[in-house]
Design goal:
By secondary structure, the chain is of the alpha+beta class. It contains 18 helices and 49 strands.
């Protein structure tokens, strides 16, 4: 860590900022003071620290804050950065300078070693704004460092020369050794601090200003000048995707989330093309490998092909879900990072905590002030030029120079010229001084002899035009500043478009995406569960962050964390992984109330539980026992047969119960009475179907995810076997189960509930034959990526429709001045339904300008028998994941 770029972990920044926001002005020490401790202390064990310690810590803290770690609001530079830029200007001759030479020159101004200067200069150069770099300056994508300063070269960029330097309005001070003048602040006419960002930690104080987009800062500055509202958000050179919903204007307490850009290259390969801010490919790959070693994710190998652009290939084992792996990468690796901004700057020798909005306003106001100062100096210089040219013209045209021919003293010459000018200077804007007269005496005879009165008048008139323009600019300073910012954007804004995509992130639940690489076992009789009971009954795969739900025969239930070995209670009847957000899993149960009481039946789901707490699902009567239990991942309701014991005059010893007739209630409900007589046996008569309403699924375009919370566009109501259809602009399509973890590509053009009997219609351009084709087809394969246009590089999908009777409009290109009329195509009548791999029919040989999809023709679907859905009695939201039932889920217990 160098002395000028001291960094802080973002998680610890808030703790480091114990400095009061209303601090008094920090001033360098004016001398050392020593004090005697004459105060008497009743406790001999306490000794006050006095003398040099009383001032030294404050002096040190003040120095680090003001002279090392925190940038100034005026120009956005830390002291070392300012001195580097000053040295580059002093050395600037248009050619490259060795960085080692610049570092050495900077040491005349900077009281620290060359290492801190070199590191700071590399950081400025890597931001590609102020320094034109040559050689190996490192790579922010891979984390590779720059070559030694003797091997790399630098010069000021054109942008830096235009916006940073203006010696006539620069506030100058004295260097640390008093030998040279250096700028206290550079006259930067641009929000440089927000463009480059800044990070550092001082004594009890830190700062972290995130970089923002060049063009967006200029646009926002213009809005400030026009009095319009604006917002600015960070933009990173590493690109990536950022969620800035909690940015908090870049002030303390805010936080942004940044993700890598991950895409699915094929079914077994993921590719990372952009990385989050504050990471590089080396640290990112290390985090992925560590997550793989810990069993959080499962990958086959990683390839890093990063050069000028990021390309990290992640190869997966066959059968591993790419979508789930992407979420796991965000949850367990550096593919998602959290950055805590903290706007702290130095203003008037005081720390100032300020948001980026106010930073930009201060910068914009300062730019206007600097432009005004430059215009005022320019006006003064132009008026001086006009004044002297006017004097020179009078001096020569009126032959005033002849009045000094007989003068032999300096005073006589000055007096003669002064008298000779007086009749002709009434139109001048200021009085003639002795200095003006001395300048006239320095005019050479050759210049007087070649003096052209007309040319002199043209120069004066040109100056008068310039003076009027400057006065106009001063009178319309805001318009002038807007034009200045607009010019900067036109000259330097190309190629500086936003790189970081802004998007609201969905929250990823680690338990849903973690790799279940451990096996859970149960010893039902002794009442133990755990991952180390390998000789006992296997339950399911699990991870070390999963919760487990356990039901006992006595009617108690408990949720606990996965452990090596844990005692729950004897006579375990059901064990499974527990998902607190799963409301589609329904438990069907019959229990006996007490040792000889009546039996009750109930259906319930489990939510809102406390870990390691036992819950009684019966009527809490001693001796209660579960007689029948089933778990149903999709709300299934089976039919069972009850057989009673032969007691007394009981006539009906056998009857059926359909669980579908019961409502789904909470786990604490008592249930409905089954019988008051003893039950001999319970048999499964018929497996059940889901009694839950079809699950409504929405697509939220903001986060590009499916959800069951009502966010975005409703795709429809989905039963367990329903699928969704995805079609991409590239001509690919697939039919998949609507899982909430699914990721979607950016070129997706169709996302809807799949109707197997509804054909897909497409018009595309065949790159090989250079003709337009039309086709209609049905999709036969599910869960498989398929391409329905030809695979030539120049082939392109024009339109795709999933309507029963689509209509299209062909707009032809003009050929030899002749414009063919638009043609309307009834696709249903134009071509019949064929296979997906069919080429289709040629649409036209004419060149098309555009193909438009029109409103489809009316269609009445045939009447089909639709099974009536059984409604549940309570209207609890039954959203959750689709889970396939691998066994019947029923448990019949032997009765005592």
């Amino acid at each position: 860590m160098n002395e000028d770029e001291e960094n802080i972990n973002p998680e610890d920044q808030n703790e480091a900022n114990s400095f009061d926001e209303n601090q008094a002005e920090i001033k360098p020490s004016e001398g050392r003071h020593f004090y005697d401790n004459n105060e008497e202390d009743s406790h001999d064990t306490i000794t006050k620290v006095t003398g040099m310690y009383k001032d030294w810590f404050l002096d040190y803290a003040s120095y680090v804050i003001l002279e090392r770690a925190v940038p100034a609001i005026e120009d956005g530079f830390k002291p070392v950065q300012r001195r580097i830029m000053h040295s580059l200007k002093e050395l600037d001759d248009g050619r490259y300078n060795k960085v080692a030479n610049v570092v050495g020159h900077t040491m005349q101004y900077h009281p620290h070693g060359d290492q801190s200067i070199g590191d700071a200069m590399v950081q400025i150069g890597q931001k590609e704004l102020l320094i034109d770099c040559q050689g190996n300056w490192g790579n922010i994508l891979t984390g590779d460092g720059a070559a030694a300063s003797r091997y790399i070269e630098a010069r000021l960029s054109k942008f830096a020369l235009e916006v940073i330097y203006s010696p006539k309005i620069t506030d100058w001070g004295v260097s640390y050794d008093g030998r040279r003048a250096e700028p206290n602040n550079l006259p930067v006419k641009f929000p440089l601090l927000l463009a480059q960002g800044a990070e550092g930690i001082a004594v009890g104080l830190s700062t972290k200003v995130l970089p923002h987009n060049f063009n967006e800062l200029i646009d926002a500055s213009i809005k400030i000048l026009k009095g319009k509202p604006f917002t600015i958000f960070p933009d990173f050179m590493t690109a990536g995707i950022a969620d800035v919903s909690n940015y908090n204007d870049g002030m303390r307490g805010g936080r942004i989330r940044v993700r890598a850009k991950i895409a699915q290259l094929d079914k077994n390969t993921l590719v990372i093309t952009q990385i989050p801010f504050s990471t590089n490919t080396t640290t990112l790959i290390d985090s992925i490998l560590k997550a793989n070693e810990k069993g959080k994710i499962k990958i086959k190998k990683i390839e890093d092909n990063t050069a000028a652009e990021v390309e990290i290939l992640i190869h997966l084992y066959p059968g591993v879900s790419p979508d789930k792996t992407i979420d796991a990468l965000f949850a367990f690796t550096g593919c998602e990072t959290s950055v805590a901004p903290l706007g702290c700057v130095i203003q008037d020798n005081k720390p100032l905590f300020v948001g980026v909005t106010d930073m930009l306003k201060i910068s914009t106001e300062r730019t206007v002030g600097l432009l005004k100062s430059e215009l005022e100096i320019q006006l003064s210089e132009l008026e001086e030029q006009w004044h002297f040219l006017s004097l020179e013209r009078i001096f020569i045209e009126k032959k005033v120079y002849r009045l000094i021919e007989e003068e032999t003293t300096k005073e006589g010459v000055i007096s003669a010229i002064d008298e000779g000018l007086k009749p002709h200077i009434k139109h001048l804007k200021r009085a003639v001084t002795e200095e003006d007269i001395l300048r006239l005496t320095e005019i050479r005879i050759m210049r007087i002899s070649k003096f052209d009165s007309n040319k002199a008048q043209d120069k004066i008139e040109a100056l008068e035009g310039d003076i009027e323009q400057v006065k106009h600019d001063l009178a319309h300073l805001i318009d002038f500043a807007i034009a200045y910012f607009t010019k900067l954007k036109e000259k330097y804004g190309k190629g500086r478009e936003r790189q970081t995509e802004l998007r609201i992130f969905d929250d990823i639940e680690a338990t849903k995406v973690v790799l279940r690489n451990t096996k859970l076992y149960v010893n039902r009789e002794e009442g133990f569960i755990g991952t180390s009971l390998k000789k006992d009954e296997y339950v399911t795969d699990c991870s070390d962050i999963d919760d487990v739900i356990v039901f006992l025969r006595n009617g108690t239930m408990m949720v606990c964390k996965v452990d090596d070995k844990k005692f729950i209670g004897k006579d375990i009847i059901h064990v499974d992984i527990f998902d607190k957000n799963d409301k589609r899993t329904v438990y069907n149960m019959i229990y006996r109330d007490g040792k000889s009481g009546p039996s009750y039946i109930k259906r319930f789901h489990v939510s809102g539980v406390t870990r390691d707490k036992a819950y009684d699902l019966t009527n809490e009567t001693a001796g209660s026992q579960v007689l029948y239990f089933s778990h149903n991942p999709n709300g299934e309701a089976e039919v069972i047969t009850i057989l009673l014991r032969q007691i007394g005059s009981v006539k009906k010893l056998k009857f059926d119960i359909d669980f579908a007739s019961l409502g789904i209630k909470g786990r604490s409900s008592k249930g409905n009475l089954v019988t008051k007589y003893p039950i001999k046996k319970i048999e499964l008569k018929e497996k059940g179907i889901s009694t839950l309403l079809p699950r409504k699924i929405w697509f939220d375009d903001t986060v590009q995810r499916l959800n069951v919370d009502g966010r975005g566009e409703l795709l429809g109501e989905f039963r367990p076997n329903d699928k969704i259809l995805i079609i991409q602009q590239s001509g690919k399509l697939k039919v998949i189960t609507p899982e909430l973890t699914t990721h979607f590509d950016e070129d997706m053009v169709v996302l809807e509930k799949w109707v197997p009997k509804k054909p897909v219609s497409a018009i595309y351009f065949d790159g090989e034959k250079e003709r337009y084709y039309i086709k209609r087809f049905l999709i036969e394969n599910e869960n498989k990526d398929e391409i329905f246009i030809t695979e030539h590089p120049n082939s392109q999908l024009e339109i795709v429709a999933t309507d029963y009777r689509p209509m299209a409009e062909l707009v032809f290109s003009k050929v030899k001045g002749v414009q063919k009329e638009n043609l309307t195509v009834d696709i249903e009548n134009f071509i019949s339904v064929k296979g997906l791999k069919a080429l289709g029919n040629q649409l036209t040989t004419d060149k098309l300008k555009q193909v438009n999809l029109l409103e489809p023709l009316p269609y009445v679907p045939p009447i089909e028998e639709i099974p009536e859905e059984m409604e549940v009695l309570d209207e609890t939201d039954m959203g959750g994941e689709n889970i396939s039932l691998e066994d019947d889920g029923q448990i019949t217990l032997t009765l005592e």
